[in-house]
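tool=predict chain=A
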Amino acid sequence: MQINDVIDAIAIKLHQTFGDSFTIYKDSIEQGFQEPCFFIALLEPDIKQIVGNRYHRTLPFDIHYFGHINADIYNVADNLLTSMEYIKCLNGDLLRGTKMSANLVDNVLHFFVSYNMFVCKDTTPEDSMEGISINGTVRGE
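tool=predict ok
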């Protein structure tokens, strides 16, 4: 699963939760953007090897919400805390959000959520040792 797959799943969930009246930015926020809107920002992705080709991948996000009044922003925070717990990717994978929190800085809501998953890296098979013969003698015989 790619990072863009998770970003797309977040955007779909935001659209399902809040409807068409909100613009969702995934790449960058344009100059003169219209409020209310969301911006999906990936923070610091992490991957750790578990065993062999199995890895644990952590994708932390900061979903910015730009709104008009604090009461509206607090309602969005409540909705995000409940709706972003599970997102469904286009391939059907269901991801659970962890470490969810929200804070308001300069009238911008920052909603933090991490999506964690186990992934298997493709490995190239090593050459087998078929057809090798060893000629030798045992000492003492």
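The chain has a mean pLDDT of 87. The first helix runs from residue 3 to 18.
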